[in-house]
Amino acid sequence: MDIHIDFPAWQGVAVTIDYAIKAIAVGMVPEGRRPSSSTAWLLAILLLPFVGLPLFLLMGSPYINRRRHKIHKQAQAAIQDVQAELPDHPSDRLPAEIESILKLNRRLTGFPAMDGERAIMHADYNLAIEEMAAAIDRARSYVYVEVYIQSWDEVTDVFYRALERAAARGVTVKLLLDQVGSLKYPGYFRLGKRLTAAGLDWRLMLPIHLHRLRFRRPDLRNHRKIIVIDGQVGFIGSLNLIKRQYKTKDRAWVDYMVELHGPIVTSLETMFGIDWYTESGEVLEFELPELEKNKSPETNYLQLIPSGPGFDTEPNLRMFNSVIHHAKQRLILASPYFVPDESMLEAVTTACYRGVEVELFVSEEADQFMVHHAQSSYYQALLEAGVRIYQFPKPFVLHSKFLLADPADDLALCMFGSSNMDMRSFGLNYESTMLVAQGNLIDKFNTLADNYRAVCYELTLEEWNRRGFFRRYIDNVMRLTSALQ
């Protein structure tokens, strides 16, 4: 007896498409991508092709934002031409090891190291916002604001009122905020009208304009946090313009902003100019700084390292790894999201094996479930290598981001700004990070680390080994999703 089974025609078509998707993905996804990212995307596509492929095309494809990246690179090239005559750094003599890092950053981003005078640390959240408002009240010509998350609430009202007063007295005020970053917070849908009524010239960063038939990757963010006043005063750090509880009831974010004066402010202004041109098409004029001749003992040698999807060479990650490898005695890392790629994980653990005392400051519980567990998945390797993990206690969220290498040494280096130490900040976010080659800011961040350590709880390997199977499983699954770039 012959047995004949008829399959519906659509099943044959579906199977054919399924295999075609998998065959194409194997040859296309790994191109220009880290091995961990390629593996994660391929796993998603091979297991669930009709779900994984659309997600890859929407969030993993490098082609959607080609127009924006082209505009960004054109603006970046123009700025590099203007700054070409400036030296790599303002010092006649710097140790060769530090000079090589400055040259690396200059080649990757075009920004030279410059002097920074009167560096002031603002580590109290609400007072930092008030100090920025006070500086805006002293503005005479222009104020530029570029901050990732913005919400006009009872805490930030003092800041926006200062901008309103500045505009009323004839000061040019330009403001950038990230659309997706700010969208979920109270008052967003009235924010634009309030900014316009206050007389501010504002734009959304990385906007999603479906009605204009312009598509972009919805997972990209402009995560920068800077303020420039008259080209003379600048602020850069980790603080968003929103009350420190964000939209929670029982949590409080821990942040800082650094106030800078001197030639380095021109770098902040330049970066803002590039982003403003990308969003508005308007070219802002600025002047090259006059290099300081008489430097005080507190002069900081600073170098701005902008990074983001528009850079092909990952300057942010390369700088982090360079500074980690630079450490000889002590390394301090603080980040709300520590989800390193293979190169950073190896750099940190290698530092331990070289005898460097390594400390990592993180939140006891991160504000994002997936990131919290992805971060936790690295604790085993870090603790076994000898990293001392300090957890900032709940309900506080340690949102500060900085790195210190040998803070008590003549070859000390410091990094601070908006960048987390995770794959998102290295590959998907536009970030602003400042490198400190010399100066009193290194001592200020070392003191900040001391203050954090005094209230933190140290996680030990013995305690970590007692976690249950379910926690291990969730951590490892979330670790896999962190590589989907």
UniProtKB/TrEMBL annotation:
Segments forming domain PLD phosphodiesterase: 218-245, 394-425
Keywords from the UniProt entry: Cell membrane, Lipid biosynthesis, Lipid metabolism, Membrane, Phospholipid biosynthesis, Phospholipid metabolism, Repeat, Transferase, Transmembrane, Transmembrane helix
TM spans (from-to): 40-64
Subcellular location: Cell membrane
Domain of life, per lineage: Bacteria
Membrane topology, record value: Multi-pass membrane protein
Gene Ontology biological process terms from the UniProt entry: cardiolipin biosynthetic process
One GO term describing the cellular component: plasma membrane
Gene source species: Corynebacterium lizhenjunii
Cited Pfam families: PLDc_2, PLDc_N
Keyword Lipid biosynthesis appears in the UniProt entry: yes
Name of this chain's protein: Cardiolipin synthase
EC number, UniProt record: 2.7.8.-
A GO term for molecular function: cardiolipin synthase activity
